[in-house]
Amino acid sequence: MRVAVPVFPGSNCDHDALHACGTVMGWDTIPVWHQETRLPENTELVIIPGGFSYGDYLRCGAIAALSPIMADVKRHADNGGLVLGVCNGFQILCEAQLLPGALLRNESLRFIHADVHLRVERADLPFTRAMKAGDVFRVPIAHAEGNFTLQPEELADLEARGGVAFRYCSAAGEIGEAHVPNGAVNGIAGITNLKGNVLGMMPHPERAVDPKLGPTGGLGIFRSLAEAFARA
Ligand SMILES: NC(=O)CC[C@H](N)C(=O)O
């Protein structure tokens, strides 16, 4: 499987994505500077990494969404190619209108780093097919603007079409405001587009995949992608 990881000025989780996909999963993983206009030939998965692209100026992800490489990421997504946006990558995908909604400042107005639990809401996606609906996994968050929001009609539409991939929950899988770290509406931690080939999430699965470095709650997503490509 060939993975492209666009790198913007201020990205820092590109290295986590390269480690997870390259070292841990053994995939051919290529960093791509944001000024490039084409993804590498035969790219199957694009991971838009976390970080602080353009210093989070204007709004997180707003400037990166206009970077030259993003036109080719859109083409890749329009052709059904897989795109995973993590944290700042999720913010960039919303700003690029590849996903609906916006990430506002955390309700606490503070940067939060913590481990959270996520409940799988959709287990039929290329990103989740190795998991089951209702499964709970633990991954880290590290963000200042993870408070996902949508206009009420758009939110109703997102929920009705099953666009919510992951929700924050307790270790036992219970849903509720008490388990939402940032104020995100309906406890939404990750969403997918209509076709299910673009997924954005605030938590960092790519930081929880290597047993040498710590817990491996993020592996379900990478195993799902491996399965999706084995069957393709
Ligand atoms: N870890 C990240 O990608 C951080 C995203 C963004 N800079 C924020 O603080 O919300």
From TrEMBL:
Q: In which pathway does it act?
A: Purine metabolism; IMP biosynthesis via de novo pathway; 5-amino-1-(5-phospho-D-ribosyl)imidazole from N(2)-formyl-N(1)-(5-phospho-D-ribosyl)glycinamide: step 1/2
* Residues at the active site: 87, 204, 206
Quote the subcellular location field of this record.
Cytoplasm
Q: Which Gene3D superfamilies does this UniProt record tie to the protein?
A: 3.40.50.880
Keyword ATP-binding assigned: yes
Q: Which CDD domains match?
A: GATase1_FGAR_AT (cd01740)
Q: Keyword set for this entry? A: ATP-binding, Cytoplasm, Glutamine amidotransferase, Hydrolase, Ligase, Nucleotide-binding, Purine biosynthesis
Is Nucleotide-binding set as a keyword in this record?
A: yes
Query: What is a single Pfam family found in this protein's UniProt entry?
Result: GATase_5
**Catalysed transformations (reactions):** L-glutamine + H2O = L-glutamate + NH4(+); N(2)-formyl-N(1)-(5-phospho-beta-D-ribosyl)glycinamide + L-glutamine + ATP + H2O = 2-formamido-N(1)-(5-O-phospho-beta-D-ribosyl)acetamidine + L-glutamate + ADP + phosphate + H(+)
Its domain of life? Answer: Bacteria
EC code(s) of this entry: 6.3.5.3, 3.5.1.2
Could you describe the subunit structure of this protein? Part of the FGAM synthase complex composed of 1 PurL, 1 PurQ and 2 PurS subunits.
HAMAP family attached to this UniProt entry? PurQ (MF_00421)
Q: What does this protein do?
A: Part of the phosphoribosylformylglycinamidine synthase complex involved in the purines biosynthetic pathway. Catalyzes the ATP-dependent conversion of formylglycinamide ribonucleotide (FGAR) and glutamine to yield formylglycinamidine ribonucleotide (FGAM) and glutamate. The FGAM synthase complex is composed of three subunits. PurQ produces an ammonia molecule by converting glutamine to glutamate. PurL transfers the ammonia molecule to FGAR to form FGAM in an ATP-dependent manner.
User: What's this protein's name?
Assistant: Phosphoribosylformylglycinamidine synthase subunit PurQ
Query: Can you name the source organism?
Result: Geothrix limicola
Q: What lineage is this protein's organism placed in? A: Bacteria, Pseudomonadati, Acidobacteriota, Holophagae, Holophagales
